[in-house]
């Protein structure tokens, strides 16, 4: 299979995943579609880290754009070898994929921390805004009876668990795809854009 075509295929997948990360992170800001909690700063500190918008989103859009537009790239100074300019472009895509690795890793780490610490909510016990599940180290995820401790925002535990889990999964897939592209870019750069000098 052509290394260039494989890279563009990865690029389109990263584009879709990055857009989904951005949407999921935006939804975290508006529990149950309400804006008042964001304006009153009553959201988890991990929501405000922008891990889906910046990490899994814009930092992954960089390699996506580079990989999708790879067939337009060329570079000089390769001593006139056929397809060598495009081979250089494949090697440069490794740097873009590394940026995607960093962004997706940031998304994974913050999502895992958000799941571990739990939501920031108003509890009926302390009558205050706190992190009621911080000491459980993620154990609250399986203690459904405790979820009712959070009174506001309504169903905030389900909201956070669902969206942080989605971001964790999307970040993991992005990380794997970017890692695959690093290998693909190195092989494509060393072997030529296409095996057998197939024209793209």
UniProtKB/TrEMBL annotation:
The chain crosses the membrane at residues 12-30, 50-70, 91-115, 156-180. The keyword Transmembrane applies. It holds the Pfam family L6_membrane. It is found in: Membrane. InterPro entries: L6_membrane. One of its GO terms (cellular component) is membrane. It is a multi-pass membrane protein. It comes from the Eukaryota. Its main location: membrane. Keywords: Membrane, Transmembrane, Transmembrane helix. Belongs to the L6 tetraspanin family. This is Transmembrane 4 L6 family member 1.
């Amino acid at each position: 299979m052509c290394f260039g075509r494989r890279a563009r295929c990865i690029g389109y997948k990263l584009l879709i995943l990055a857009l989904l990360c951005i949407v999921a992170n935006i939804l975290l800001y508006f529990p149950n579609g309400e804006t008042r909690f964001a304006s009153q700063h009553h959201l988890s500190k991990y929501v405000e880290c922008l891990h889906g918008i910046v990490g899994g989103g814009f930092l992954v859009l960089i390699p996506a754009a580079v990989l999708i537009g790879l067939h337009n790239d060329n570079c000089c100074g390769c001593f006139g070898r056929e397809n060598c300019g495009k081979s250089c472009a494949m090697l440069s895509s490794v740097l873009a994929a590394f940026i995607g690795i960093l962004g997706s890793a940031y998304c994974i780490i913050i999502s895992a921390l958000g799941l571990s610490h739990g939501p920031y909510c108003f509890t009926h016990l302390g009558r205050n805004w706190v992190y009621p599940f911080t000491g459980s180290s993620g154990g609250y995820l399986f203690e459904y009876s405790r979820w009712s401790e959070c009174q506001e925002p309504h169903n905030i535990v389900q909201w956070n668990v669902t969206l942080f889990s989605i971001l964790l999964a999307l970040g993991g897939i992005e990380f794997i795809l970017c890692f695959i592209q690093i290998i693909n870019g190195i092989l494509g750069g060393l072997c030529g854009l296409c095996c057998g000098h197939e024209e793209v």
